[in-house]
Every structure is written in structure tokens, then in C-alpha cells.
Amino acid sequence: MATFTFTKDTFRLNLSPAESRALERPSLSLDKTRLISARLLEFPGKVTLGYRVSKPMLFNNLLGEYRTSAGTTLVLGKLKGSTEALKITISHPGIDQIWVCGVQALELEEKLNQFLDKKPA
To answer: Cα separation of 62 and 74, whole Å?
Structure first.
């Protein structure tokens, strides 16, 4: 499971070893100005995510990077019975949105909205 850290102007996703292996990067740092929104939503499903371009994982078949003609999506964590996940929309040259699944999604939504000085929707 990824860990998340905040500094004054930066949000950093520190990926777990499995996530690092699948996404071929140890972490992702985003400036506050690149974060557009963070909302807890119904997870769209594997079919609508697009074409998987990252390495498939044996025990977590959703984890990875997906591409469509409209953009790129990263999926982190495991859904674990819940159908809700945190959708983070960003302005980044290589990534359009990040879906964070699992138990940390609700807590991360609150922290991100505080970081962005917004109230949850």
C-alpha cells in the first residue's frame, strides 16, 4: 500500500514495492498547483480503465497504468470488497488521473481536500 506525504507545496506518493515494480517508478511527486480534485467515487471497473501498459500483477489484477485515447490512469492499492475508490484528477503531462483503492482512500480524500483548502464534496 502506498504512503502519502505532504509538504508546504508538494504531495508525494511513495509507492509500495509491488506498486513500484508494476509502475516502474518508486514515487510520484506533484505540486499543489497540479492537483485539480479528489473525490470518493464508485470505481469504474477494469473495462473502462483502458489498455494496461504496465506489468500485470499476480495477486492484484487492477494495480497498474492504463491508457485510452483520452488519457492515462494509475490505479494504486487493492479494492478489497469495497466498490468506492478515491479519484484524484491532476494536470500532469503523463498522467490524467489516479485511482487510490483500499482503506486509506477516505482518509486521503480528507487530507487532500485540506491540502487544497477545499471542503469534501
So the answer is: 10
